[in-house]
From TrEMBL:
This is FAD-dependent oxidoreductase. Its EC number is 1.-.-.-. PANTHER family: GLYCINE OXIDASE, SARCOSINE DEHYDROGENASE-RELATED. The lineage of its organism: Bacteria, Bacillati, Actinomycetota, Actinomycetes, Micrococcales. The keyword Oxidoreductase applies. It comes from Microbacterium dauci. GO terms for molecular function: oxidoreductase activity. Residues 6-76, 113-277 form the FAD dependent oxidoreductase domain. It is an enzyme of class 1 (oxidoreductase). Pfam families: DAO. InterPro entries: FAD-dep_OxRdtase, FAD/NAD-bd_sf.
Length: 293
C-alpha cells in the first residue's frame, strides 16, 4: 500500500481524535467524521478516565496499558493529572486521570477538517479517501464487519457522578472495593460505585442522580469516613462501555477499513494513536500482533 495522503477518521472521541492528531502530525491530511462535532459524547463524559494498568490480564495486555500510562507521563500534557492512585490499600504512583473534554478539543483543533455526519456505510468514504479509520467506540462493530472479535462493541452501561465539595480529603484517585473517587478539578469530585451499578442493573433500574446519590454518599462515608455535603448539586452521566467481544483492544484492517476500538480507551489513547498512525504509514509495531481483528 502506498503512503496514504488523505485519511478519514470516523469518530471524534478520545481514541479517534488522538489517532487523527497523530496522523496529522505525521504529515497526513486528516478529515474527522463524527455524529457529534466535539467528540465529548456520553462515553467520555461518563468515563472515570483513570489511567492505570491495574487488574488487566493477560500479561501482554497489562504491559500494553503500562506502556500507554508511561506515554501519558512522557507527554506531560496539561489535561493529564498525574495524581497517583491508592487502590484497596496499594499505591499506584504513575496513575492519573484525564480531562477528556480538554484532550479531545486539543486533538480536534490540530486536524485539517472536521465533518459532522453519521456514517451508515463506509463504501463512499473508501472511494473518497486513501484510507478510512473507524474509531467509532461502541459504533465500530456496525462499520467494520468481518471479524468475530467485532461482532459487538457495546458493553455494560455505567455512570459517573460529579459534585462540588471544598473539603474532599483526597487529592488522588481512591478505589475501595469498587467505590472509585477522584478529583474533578478545583473543588469538584467525580465518583462511581460498581456495587450500586451492579445492583441497579440486577433490578433493571436506570441510574439517575436521585436513585444513586443517597446510596453513593452513604458508601463514601462508610469507606472513607468523609461525609460529602448533603446539599451539593449532583450531576450524573451514563454510557455503555465500549467493549469488544473478548475485552481486548482491536486494532487493524477489517472489511476494508482500519478499526481501532478498546475498553480502557482513555488509558490507551496516546499509545494506540502512535502505533495506529505508524501502522497506517507502513511501520508495524510488534505490540499490535495480539490485537489484530
Ligand atoms: C462508566 C465508564 C467508566 C470508564 N472508566 C474508564 C477508566 O477509568 N479508564 C479508562 O481508560 N477507560 C475508562 N472507560 C472507557 C473509556 O471511557 C472508553 O474506552 C473511551 O472513552 C472510548 O473512546 P472512543 O473514542 O473509542 O469512543 P467514544 O468516546 O464513544 O467516541 C465515539 C465517536 O464515534 C462517533 N460515532 C459513533 N458511531 C458513529 C457513526 N456511525 N458515524 C459517525 N460517527 C460515529 C461518536 O459520535 C463519537 O465521536 C470508561 C467507560 C465508561 C462508560
Amino acid at each position: 500500500m502506498t503512503r496514504p495522503q488523505h485519511v478519514a477518521v470516523i469518530g471524534a472521541g478520545v481514541i479517534g481524535s488522538s489517532i487523527a492528531a497523530a496522523l496529522e502530525a505525521s504529515g497526513v491530511e486528516v478529515t474527522v467524521i463524527a455524529s457529534d462535532a466535539t467528540g465529548t459524547g456520553p462515553v467520555s463524559r461518563a468515563s472515570l478516565a483513570w489511567v492505570n494498568a491495574r487488574a488487566k490480564t493477560p500479561e501482554y495486555y497489562r504491559q500494553f496499558n503500562a506502556d500507554a500510562r508511561a506515554r501519558w507521563t512522557e507527554l506531560a500534557l496539561p489535561w493529564f493529572h498525574a495524581t497517583g492512585a491508592r487502590a484497596d490499600g496499594e499505591d499506584f504512583g504513575p496513575d492519573g486521570w484525564v480531562d477528556t473534554a480538554a484532550a479531545i478539543a486539543a486533538n480536534l483543533a490540530s486536524v485539517s477538517h472536521v465533518r459532522v455526519e453519521t456514517v451508515t456505510d463506509t463504501s463512499a468514504l473508501r472511494e473518497e479517501f486513501d484510507a478510512v479509520v473507524v474509531a467509532a467506540g461502541a459504533g465500530t462493530a456496525a462499520l467494520a464487519p468481518g471479524s468475530p472479535r467485532l461482532s459487538t462493541t457495546t458493553g455494560a452501561e455505567g455512570y459517573l457522578v460529579r459534585f462540588a465539595a471544598s473539603d474532599a480529603p483526597f487529592d488522588r484517585i481512591v478505589s475501595i472495593k469498587g467505590l472509585q473517587l477522584r478529583p474533578d478539578g478545583e473543588g469538584r469530585v467525580a465518583a462511581q460505585s460498581l456495587t450500586i451499578e451492579n445492583r441497579l442493573r440486577e433490578e433493571g433500574v436506570t441510574a439517575t442522580a436521585e436513585n444513586v446519590w443517597p446510596a453513593l454518599r452513604a458508601e463514601i462515608l462508610a469507606a472513607t469516613g468523609w461525609a460529602p455535603p448533603a446539599d451539593t448539586a449532583v450531576t450524573i452521566n451514563r454510557a455503555h462501555r465500549t467493549h469488544p467481544v473478548d475485552g481486548l483492544p482491536v486494532i487493524g484492517w477489517v472489511g476494508g477499513v482500519y478499526a481501532v476500538v478498546a475498553h480502557s480507551g482513555v488509558t490507551l489513547a496516546p499509545l494506540l494513536a502512535d502505533l495506529a498512525a505508524r501502522d497506517l504509514l507502513g511501520d508495524e509495531d510488534p505490540r499490535l500482533a495480539p490485537f489484530r481483528p
